[in-house]
Amino acid sequence: MSNTPVTAFTDIVDTVAHLVETVADDQWTAPTPCSEWNVQQLVDHLVTGQGVFIGVMAEQSTSEGSEQPDGTEPTPASLKAAFRESAGALVTAFAQPGALERTVQAPIGAVPGAVALHLQTIEHLVHGFDLAQATGRKALFDDTAVERETEFARGLVAQLPPAPDGPFAQSRTAPADAPTIDHLAALLGREITG
């Protein structure tokens, strides 16, 4: 069990990194529960988001895309390397002294660093769920961390415009005996079956 939000985030990112690193060659174009993206687009989205939040925590703007230096789209191999590298840099940014207490300019506006950490933790949990579903694996996240982020997400969803104008699909309900991560995924609009 993780002791702090940053160590919990570190564990979550490591779990997602393992999922990314073990995507089979024929799975990169597979659809995901996040209907906008296939596996490669989903991983690219996570890498881009990590870059944005590294900039947020460093109080500087960052590039919104993850194109290669020559302007081409990222390859699966480059995405695997980029995910691990940017994830490590993001963990380091959140772990800096005072990082969670100061106000930062996130894409949703000015928020405490602790809220920025929640946003990225939820992002990695839900897209880790998406990635695991798309590749036929399980995302083994710590239930205590997932429950903490589910409570935060409930408050966040209540403050945001509902679908289709809001950032999340319509909330759904997971079966009562479903894994904890399924309840968070359902809250953020994923269809939970079985």
From TrEMBL:
Q: Could you tell me which InterPro entries the record lists for this protein?
A: CHP03086 (IPR017520), DinB/YfiT-like (IPR034660), Maleyloyr_isom (IPR017517), MDMPI_metal-binding (IPR024344)
Q: Give a GO molecular function annotation for the protein.
A: metal ion binding
Question: Would you tell me the protein name for this molecule?
Answer: TIGR03086 family protein
One Pfam family this chain carries? MDMPI_N
Superkingdom classification of source? Bacteria
Query: Where's the Mycothiol-dependent maleylpyruvate isomerase metal-binding domain?
Result: 11-132
Q: Which residues cross the membrane?
A: none
